[in-house]
Model the fold of this input.
Amino acid sequence: MKKVIFTLAATLTIGTTAFANPAPHESVNEGKQLVEKFQNLTRNNIWEQKEKVDLQFNTFHPQGMTKVGDLYYMSSVEIIEKTVKYAQPQNGYDRTAGKGVGHLFVFNKDGKLLKDLKLGEGTIYHPGGIDYDGKSIWVPVAEYRPNSKSIIYKVNPETMKVQEVFRPNDHIGGIVRDRKQGTLKAVSWGSRTFYEFNEKGEVLRKSNNPSHFIDYQDCENAGKDNMICSGIAELPQPGSATAKYELGGVALLNMKTMNIVHELPITLFSPQGHVVTRNPVFLENTVQGIKMYAVPDDDKSSMLVYETSVSKK
Done:
């Protein structure tokens, strides 16, 4: 979904607070190439699986992912007590708060866990889609229910220091920093609402998502005033009251207008039968095309790596 390769200046030291010194974010030219290639993707593109990296830790329910150098940062929610829907809404909520723990995992190319940051407080324990802006990793953590509240954090990948930035009055399910304007683009529960915040948490813009193709789960800056979002829609299966078909997809959005520039379905499925864009996804520019990383399964997860060639029209 999203991005280009960064380089890391030093090796991570386990057991200390000093990770590595991340290099500046991708060049303008490389971001432009990623956007141009994305716009030439179609349903006919063949995604070839290149790697399957088994993650050597309990991933719980992964949510968002980004890459800094050779390290992967992935948000996840550990559910201790599931939410339960009310028969009738209570105090503006449609369900109980449940209980859980928010995580930001750091792991290497072999799937080895290097760091586990706990994020959130009280009923705010559900991290969402994350973004790296070349300096900080932005992580929203929300209540596990719509129309609730959130905390927006930024994490320094060099020191792994966590800083609370602001608290929106809604469930924020994904966030992206506009590196040019310095503002933050965000999506609500099911991505039905788009937000634009400044770093004080003031709402600069709020609009409805015009697309009902998929709900965005993870978004990230793609350069050239664009962001790429991935996600899922659960559709009913004929003849079954409970079975669902997972429709996956990716979309390129203009960050200025939040209009969709290009979108397409993704029909790749995991070993557990989940569409690969179910939760954490990011895209990376390659010489011949685009590389996609995804972690669609819960608990005993694998990072699936695909590549596709892209020809200009």
